[in-house]
Amino acid sequence: RIVYVNGAYVPEAEATISVFDRGLLFADGVYEVTAVIGGKLLDFAAHMARLRRSLRELALPSPMEDDAILAIHRELVARNALDLGHVYLMVTRGAADRDFAFPPEGTKPSLVLFTQARAAIETPEATRGLKVATVPDLRWARRDIKTVQLLYPSMAKMEARSRGADDAWMVEDGFVTEGTSNNAYIVTQEGTIVTRSLSNAILHGITRAAVLRTAAEHGVRVEERAFTVDEAKGAREAFITSAGAFVTPVVAIDDVPVGTGMPGELTKRMRANYLEEALRTAI
Ligand code: PMP
């Protein structure tokens, strides 16, 4: 694989980054993951807008303008002949002597991008649905910023796996926040999609925004509000969204089947509608 590190396209085995990089020492960095289908980027402008917001919230310097970042995405897709998968992008505060205080102004941020090929469309998860296990949400209070500080979500996923599930849904004060790397939804018995409203408690998913837009266009009712684990267990359907999973059904919560225990009809329709819209606007 050819990867991009601080201005250079290099084979992955030759890519280097400083041991003093603050991404490594403090998880002082932010990231984006943009899906690629047929060599095209999905929702690219929205990912850049969120990247800008994450950078601003952490007073991280911008490595370059959006069009230059787009050019790197395209170059990597081309050099790696990527058809299906995603591009990972990370910006850190760069290398500086280890100190909790931010380094002096003028310290160059690090910019790293790489591609990951993945059979993202016809996945077993999409066909059979995911089982989720609930765990307490022990992350920090600024989950709206897409930082590379992902240890707790990683631990939560392992906890879910150890309980025979595929992923975790995190819970705070009795209400589901989101999945380890995705937003969480239920469909009520009346056919309304319910997903938590935007706040610092969850990441503002790009796929979430697109799916809610699609729902509105198709006349599907949506309520943006928190839901409890009990409400979710009694729901007709459940699903998650992310740039990696698009819309993927959830068929069990803590071993309780959701609805029929099979991927829901509305969920399947939302997946198809989302993919159609995202492909139409891919660049
Ligand atoms: N929530 C969390 C915690 C995530 O890590 C992600 C994906 N990175 C999402 C939600 C989904 O966001 P998106 O649709 O932008 O991929």
UniProtKB/TrEMBL annotation:
Entry keywords, A to Z: Amino-acid biosynthesis, Aminotransferase, Branched-chain amino acid biosynthesis, Pyridoxal phosphate, Transferase
Any one biological process term the GO annotation gives: branched-chain amino acid biosynthetic process
Cellular component, GO, one term: cytosol
UniProt cofactor(s): pyridoxal 5'-phosphate
Molecular function GO terms recorded: branched-chain-amino-acid transaminase activity
EC number: 2.6.1.42
InterPro entries, A to Z: Aminotrans_IV, Aminotrans_IV_CS, Aminotransferase-like, BCAT-like_C, BCAT-like_N, Class-IV_PLP-Dep_Aminotrnsfr
Reactions catalysed: L-isoleucine + 2-oxoglutarate = (S)-3-methyl-2-oxopentanoate + L-glutamate; L-leucine + 2-oxoglutarate = 4-methyl-2-oxopentanoate + L-glutamate; L-valine + 2-oxoglutarate = 3-methyl-2-oxobutanoate + L-glutamate
Known function: Acts on leucine, isoleucine and valine.
Membership in a protein family: Belongs to the class-IV pyridoxal-phosphate-dependent aminotransferase family.
Protein name: Probable branched-chain-amino-acid aminotransferase
Classification of source organism: Bacteria, Pseudomonadati, Pseudomonadota, Alphaproteobacteria, Hyphomicrobiales
